[in-house]
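ARCHIVE CARD
Drawer: 12
Card no.: 0347
Subject: one protein chain, sequence and derived structure
Cross-reference: see card 0346
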Amino acid sequence: MKNKWFKQNISCQYLDEPSTQYSLTLDRFRGLFLLAGVVSTSSLIIFLGSFLHEYYHMFTNAGSKVPTWQRLVDMFKYFDQKRTSSNNGVQ
């Protein structure tokens, strides 16, 4: 049984051929990198969309004299403060 499963004389057909043909290069991972980039970018866009949807009332109620950049900063500070206070209760 040992000889049937573990043959001693195994020949490899690719031993005599150049190994560069079958080596892994950066070009062989191009599709994987592209997919990871698309998924990461999509996830970021979805998160930002849901974040702005949830906290949009803060953005519109801040008044017209407050600059847009300051409104966004205040919204993110509020989110960070809310997230920090909710994590303090969990240990």
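Annotation on reverse: The two ends are 57 Å apart (CA to CA). Residues 43 and 79 are 19 Å apart (CA to CA).
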